[in-house]
Amino acid sequence: MFEYELHQVRAAELIREADNYRLAREARAARKSRRPQGGSDSQDAEGRVSTHRPRRHRAARTA
User: Fold this and answer.
1) Which stretches of 1-63 are assigned E, i.e. beta strand?
2) Rounded to 10 degrees, what is the CA torsion of 33, 39, 44, 49?
3) Which residues contact 61 (CB under 8 A, 6 or more apart)?
4) Rounded CA gap, 10 and 8, in Å?
């Protein structure tokens, strides 16, 4: 009987977690749809480029 109650608690937690995830995803989609589609002055026509690498310092290393 105790295992069944643990199962019910875990199932309820998973349902709440899924609802929170769904709500966050819908909020992101709504925020994305509110953005202007033409692009802004600070970005190029192609959009933002991500290299997934850490940025290097522009100054050369000194001895």
Assistant:
1) none
2) -10
3) none
4) 5
Q: Token match 């050369």: residue?
A: 60
Which residues neighbour 47 within 8 Å (Cβ) at sequence distance 6 or greater?
Answer: 39
19-51 residues labelled b (16+ CB within 10 A) or e (exposed): eeeeeeeeeeeeeeeeeeeeeeeeeeeeeeeee
pTM: 0.48
pLDDT, one tens digit for every residue, the chain (63 residues): 899 999 999 999 999 999 999 999 999 999 999 877 655 555 556 666 666 666 666 777 776
The helix (H) or strand (E) run that includes residue 5 is: helix 2-34
